[in-house]
Amino acid sequence: MSGQYFENNPGLKHDIHEYSLSMNGNTFRFLTDSGVFSRNFFDFGSKSLVEIFKPYEGAKSFLDLGCGYGPIGTIVKKTFPFLDVTLSDVNPRAVELAEQNLLKNGVLANVILSDGFNEINQSFDLILLNPPIRAGKQIVYSLYIESEKHLNPMGELWIVIQKKQGAESSVKFLKEHFKIVEIIDKNKGYFIIKNKKVV
Questions:
Q1: For a designed S-S bond to 15, which of 34, 51, 79, 170 qualifies (C-beta 3.0 to 4.6 A apart)?
Q2: Of 6, 20, 28, 27, whose CA–CA distance to 136 is shortest?
Q3: Over residues 26-38, mean pLDDT
């Protein structure tokens, strides 16, 4: 199916949209376009994830994996300016928008065009992921596994996923790869799951 937000579809017609959002004492403005996830508003799952997320003491590096047009990475950097923030996405249109939105909101962060971790060589203390459910379980689970490999010791992978989209089976799978898996919150069917890499 063409036009999915996790695909590279440069022929998709542009339809620029802008919205504003107040979070954590800051007001943000985001440009979006056709072919990116949740283009008309900050989706409830990502909002729930960002609202409850807090870096552990000593954490420095952060990855917004599958960043879309960049709301998570932008908000996290603005809220926790001491973090070294990287955003990545497979969709060139999303990456371009993320770069514009960082500038629009006065935030400095690194943006990488990457299919999963293909172009990412470094490791991180923190990774946040709202998985691309429509891409299929195989791709989603591979992102879980690769995230674990790209976490520093004691690093954390934070995930938001709906119960009806497989949250409970995700938790079961994650427990096979992380020693500590904790359901931080459940909000209107969305599970916020924190996974800690203990070595």
A1: 34
A2: 6
A3: 81
pTM of the predicted protein model:
0.92
The domains of the chain are located at 17-196
Q: What is the pLDDT of residues 170-198, one digit of tens each?
A: 999 999 999 999 999 999 999 999 999 99
In the block, which residue shows the tokens 């209107």?
188
Taking CA atoms, 63 is separated from 11, 40, 60, in Å, by: 28, 23, 10
CA distance 125 to 197: 10
Tokens encoding 157: 């992978």
Which residues are CB-neighbours of 38 under 8 A, at least 6 positions away?
Answer: 32, 46, 68
Least Cα distance to 143 among 126, 158, 131 occurs for 131
The residue type at 137: K
User: Token match 């800051």: residue?
Assistant: 26
How far apart are alpha carbons 154 and 170 in whole angstroms? 20
Residue with tokens 């293909």: 118
CATH number of 17-196: 3.40.50.150
Compute CA distances 174 → 37, 131, 132, 181, 195, whole Å.
24, 13, 16, 7, 8
Cα separation, 178 vs 115, whole angstroms: 23
Q: What would the two tokens of residue 165 be?
A: 């989209």
| pLDDT tops 50 at residue 92 | yes
CA distance 107 to 166: 34
The mean of the pLDDT values for the chain is 91
Query: Do the beta carbons of residue 87 and residue 62 sit within 8 Å?
Result: no
